[in-house]
Amino acid sequence: MANKFYITTPIYYVNASPHIGHSYTTIAADVLSRYMRQALGKENVWFLTGTDEHGQKIQKAADAAKLSPQDFVDKTSEQFKSLWKSLDVSYDDFIRTTEERHIKVVQKVLQILYERGDIYEGRYEGLYCTPCETFWLESQATGGLCPDCRRPVEHIVETNYFFKLSKYQEWLLDHLKKNTDFIKPASRYEETLRFLELNKLNDLCISRPKERLSWGIPLPFAAGHVAYVWFDALINYISAVGSFDDKGNYQSKWWPAQLHLMAKDILRQHTVYWPIMLHALNIPLPQKVFAHGWWMINEDKMSKSRGNVVNPLDMVEKYGLDAYRYFLMREVPFGLDGSFSEESIIKRYNSDLANDLGNLVYRTLTMVEKYFNGAIPDIKLSPDSKTSGEILAKIKDLGSRVSAGLGDQDFSSALEAIWELIAMANKHIEYTKPWNLAKENKQDELKEFIRLLVDTIREVARHLYPFMPRTAESIQIQLGATVIKKGNPLFPRIETEKK
Ligand code: ME8
Q1: What's the pLDDT score for residue 250?
Q2: Stated pTM of the model
Q3: Which of 394, 335, 365, 379 is closest to 28 using CA atoms?
């Protein structure tokens, strides 16, 4: 494992407001960052997110809002920043592609690739989807519709600049075969490999004529063109960490990234275009690209173009931030699609949070108050104890299970491991019946019993912290050092009948 951790989310388009899908990737990155800060120290973790602010979609949205593109992106990128603040997202840097630090690097990259002959001038004739900014083959655009957004494609002819993807196809295939962990989950790796084996890569059109689109980064060698938004956007991952800075350093402290997170919709850009761009520039590749699944509403992907988006803040207002974060990370194995509904949030909330976690904490603290006047019994537990041994073994195991889960971006299995401990502790209470110990005045056993529960909760809070920072802190505060400060139940049950 590298001794630093650089993690990125996609930079989101600012043509519409953020929704649950955006918050999913960003919260996942936040969980990993918080976890890695605990493991490696704060100074060794860098969490980058940001906004993608050029291109046709943005220009159109700005026109519709009757704002200049710059005013429009200034306004909408703030929405993302403010949402991340409300969701306790602890990013280290937020990059906007309209920033000077980014534009400089994009132009540098274009210039280098042009001088090396990897970018050349050519003529493009074919089908184009304006909203998606994607060129399509006749065979792909069946019925004259864009296969992605299902809107009509246009026929266009123009002079443009192309990046020689085709030249590097064999290299990329070879790289993938040698680095089977480069793309995760495995299904996405297979998909990329198959795509490269079965298709001949076309060179990538990386420019747009200014008369059709002016809202972009000008090509340094062709005044009449701006850069294609994807070519511009991918470079954020290196521009944000100071590649090609004034000292000519090609590598900063952070590059290469340990992990690029995204959903499967933008897999190809990250597993084909981006590695080839970096390779052509002689820059090392990121360690891993993870493309998770989609949140769906019924059978449809949640997306602004389908008009079925849910605002994360509405969910947070109804169920609380940590319940929302928990739900996203627990409900669906990262990598698979998930179906989003409030019923499933409520179900998770009531069973995992109110019943399991909330009750364990509340009952334990109530017993510390009742039997020991709030003072945590000052004894040392032995792993050989007949009554505590099993739970202590589980606690001992928890760190490595959480670490294995998060190492594979398997959030739900890391949480499952924590919940196994919670379930075991709850069972232990029911089985031991502490009220009987108290009645029979079995002080030593009662002390051991309570101490075990307190230690369990402490461990649970420690491991929950990356997922649910506020809940973890609240538990830690309630536990105090030696005397508890019990608060209200963490997750009061949601009564569905009343809703
Ligand atoms: O593609 N389920 O930006 P974008 C899960 N600017 N995740 C979802 C989702 C859903 N239904 N909908 C969106 C772009 N996402 C480019 C990226 S990167 C150099 C440039 C998340 O605003 C997911 O992370 O369309 C997906 O990959 C991303 O938002 C797409 O965001």
Answers
A1: 54
A2: 0.95
A3: 335
